[in-house]
Design brief:
By secondary structure, this protein is of the alpha/beta class. The chain contains twelve helices and 15 strands. The strands form four sheets. Strands 1, 2, 3, 4, 7, 8, 9 and 10 form an eight-stranded mixed β-sheet that branches. It has a three-stranded antiparallel β-sheet with strand order 14-13-15, with no helix packed on it. A two-stranded antiparallel sheet has the order 5-6. The longest helix has 16 residues. The chain starts with 7 loop residues before the first helix and ends in a 7-residue tail after the last helix. The model has no long low-confidence stretch (mean pLDDT about 90).
Length: about 375
């Protein structure tokens, strides 16, 4: 509780611009009676969002055994809210590869859902699943923010029209501690309830509550924080990785959530992209060339050194961000796929002239829904 009498979670939600919602701080058996609910289950990676919704699945097995008045209370307009269907984002299929195909999987285990589980690539495929399962009254849509923006309005419409309840375990903040994307923002606007989950900060010296997802890489046993302009979406499993091209995730408090390169991104990288968009590509090429072949000559190195080495309170771990491979490629993905500042022709030219990593670029551009043949 802070000096104004507001706890940390309430303050976070207020800062994110949440409307007035029923904020729940503990779990009781799921309410299958109340219709029209659009429930967000939010928190950092590893906070138990999917495990939380697996309890709803287990509760439904009990509720479906009820008869008489209980059936009338949970049904209407052709649906039964005790019937639960789980939808996974197609983008996230590589998570938990060792589990059965019909598993609602989380880090502590899984629930077998049989025919009541499916995957969808976008809101149109979700709409097809809704049509194919017209009596299902409760839908769990895992990682909802991975879907297109239309899903927020599809959920709101189906909820209002038929009394369907939707449960959306999803990231709201990305590894940059910013709203994940426009879909996340629209889900917030259309929600009726929110369950915020936290976790212990996973730094070895800390037991503070964590609200944030931290992305880092392992290079020769060193923890290397992801740069601010690291590709926004990187699809992969939840297993630890020692490949400097593949990230690891954990939850971290504000003190131990390292995010180098934010100032550089807005002081240098994005302005260079804007120059390139206006036809002057040479300054960007020079910086990307330094990032690719001689990092100590780059403006990124100069920026990090000034902020984290040549200062009153040095934080050398922030400099480890420069140990990861493909920094020029990451910057290019940011400028093209996220900021939309470069044309496809400019990307092809830069990749060819600087001999950048085709495989890495193709994979990350595909992850961020801007695929290019390189």
């Amino acid at each position: 509780m802070n000096e104004n009498g507001t706890n940390e979670t309430d303050q976070l939600l207020r800062n994110l611009g949440f409307p007035l919602l029923r904020v729940h701080h503990s779990y009781s058996h799921y309410d299958f009676v109340t219709p029209n609910r659009r429930i967000l289950v939010i928190g950092p990676m590893g906070s138990g969002k999917t495990e939380f919704t697996s309890r709803v699945w287990r509760d439904s097995k009990i509720a479906l055994k009820k008869k008489g008045r209980a059936v009338a209370m949970t049904s209407g307009k052709g649906i039964d809210r005790r019937q639960v269907f789980v939808v996974r984002a197609s983008l996230d299929k590589s998570r938990f590869p060792d589990y059965p195909d019909d598993a609602l999987a989380f880090r502590g285990g899984y629930e077998r859902c049989g025919k009541f589980i499916g995957s969808a690539h976008d809101s149109f495929e979700l709409e097809m699943l809704l049509a194919e399962n017209p009596t299902v009254g409760t839908w769990i849509i895992d990682e909802t923010a991975f879907f297109d923006e239309r899903i927020a309005y599809l959920i709101a419409d189906e909820s209002a029209r038929r009394g369907i309840c939707f449960i959306c375990p999803t990231l709201v903040l990305n590894f940059r501690k910013e709203i994940f994307n426009q879909t996340a923002r629209l889900l917030l606007e259309n929600a009726t309830d929110v369950f915020p989950l936290t976790a212990y900060c996973e730094h070895e010296d800390c037991l503070q509550d964590s609200l944030y997802t931290y992305r880092y890489y392992q290079v020769d046993g060193e923890e290397c924080p992801a740069l601010y302009f690291d590709p926004l979406i990187i699809i992969g499993g939840d297993r630890a990785k020692s490949d400097g091209k593949e990230p690891n995730y954990c939850t971290r408090c504000d003190i131990h959530h390292y995010l180098p390169g934010k100032e550089y991104t807005f002081f240098t990288l994005k302005p260079l992209g804007e120059l390139a968009a206006r036809g002057n590509i040479a300054p960007l090429m020079a910086e990307l060339n330094a990032l690719s072949g001689n990092i100590s000559e780059s403006r990124l190195y100069q920026s990090l050194k000034a902020r984290y080495v040549d200062c009153e309170e040095p934080r050398p771990i922030q400099m480890n961000a420069l140990l990861v491979p493909c920094i020029a490629e990451r910057a290019l993905v940011y400028l093209y796929a996220e900021q939309n500042l470069l044309s496809a022709e400019q990307v092809h030219y830069i990749v060819k002239e600087l001999a950048l990593d085709h495989e890495y670029l193709s994979l990350r551009l595909s992850d961020n829904r801007r695929p290019l043949e390189l």
